[in-house]
Design brief:
The protein has 218 residues and is an alpha/beta fold. The protein has helices at 14-25, 32-47, 55-63, 90-99, 103-117, 129-133, 147-160, 167-183, 205-217; strands at residues 3-7, 28-31, 67-70, 75-78, 81-82, 122-126, 139-144, 196-199. Helix 4 (90-99) runs parallel beside helix 8 (167-183) and helix 7 (147-160) packs across helix 8 (167-183). Bound molecules: cytidine-5'-diphosphate (CDP).
């Protein structure tokens, strides 16, 4: 079993690259962020406001949740409901870091991440994959890019799905999420020991994929 862990801040290109690396090597791609997004989406649907979240109601929500990732995380199901598109809404992005800061959420999702990856060759991306979920991963990558470049990439994604948002607002939202993700008590976002850092500002997707694939062969 070989694990490639790819961590980094919001919209740094992790998932695009992770999917391509997985397909190049014939590994399974696991999108850990999609799991935090599902919990956030379900919370918002039931309780409307993320800021109202509390351990007890989150525990209840998690207890009743059967979360499944299919086709290299292309499709995401919660109790057989397909939430693959719904979890990408910017409303979910805006609230996910708060929900992901709860210990009970992290414990449950990390357990699931380890279970799905058991005895398989995987590429998993997220915030704490190299630090907490798989500290012994064969290769750890920490992907970064400037907030403006990340916001421009995310804006393109959102616009292609008909969501309109100002670039400056999106930069603010991405920075706010980075701050919450890096400053939280439970498994904060940071570069794992032994991780290679790749700044993707001036790199094409193919260049990043080749760089990672070459590291695993060495
Ligand atoms: O693709 P993007 O960078 O927007 O984020 P994502 O990978 O879908 O993750 C969404 C959010 O889930 C992050 O901002 C984190 O708050 C949380 N997350 C986490 O805490 N730990 C992970 N392993 C993955 C995501």
């Amino acid at each position: 079993m070989t694990v490639i862990a790819i961590d980094g801040p919001a919209a740094s290109g992790k998932s695009t690259v992770a999917k391509l690396v997985a397909s190049k090597l014939g590994y399974l791609y696991i999108d850990s962020g999609a799991m935090y997004r599902v919990v956030t989406y379900l919370w918002l649907r039931k309780f409307a406001k993320a800021s109202d979240a509390d351990e007890k109601n989150l525990a209840e929500l998690l207890k009743n949740l059967d979360l499944r990732l299919e086709e290299n995380s292309k499709r995401v199901y919660a109790n057989d409901e397909d939430l693959s598109e719904a979890i990408r809404a910017n409303e979910v992005s805006r609230n996910v870091s708060y929900i992901a800061s709860f210990k009970i959420v992290r414990e449950r999702l990390v357990e699931l991440q380890r279970k799905i990856a058991a005895n398989r060759d995987v590429v998993m991306d997220g915030r704490d994959i190299g630090t907490v979920v798989f500290p012994d991963a064969a290769l750890k990558v920490y992907m970064i890019a400037s907030p403006r470049v990340r916001a421009q990439r995310r804006l393109k994604d959102l616009q292609s799905k008909g969501e309109n948002i100002e670039l400056e607002n999106l930069i603010g939202e991405i920075e706010a999420r980075d701050k919450l993700d890096s400053e939280r008590k439970e498994s904060p976002l940071r570069k794992a020991d032994g991780a290679i850092e790749i700044n993707t500002d001036a790199m094409t997707i193919d260049e990043v994929v080749s760089k990672i694939a070459s590291e695993i062969i060495l």
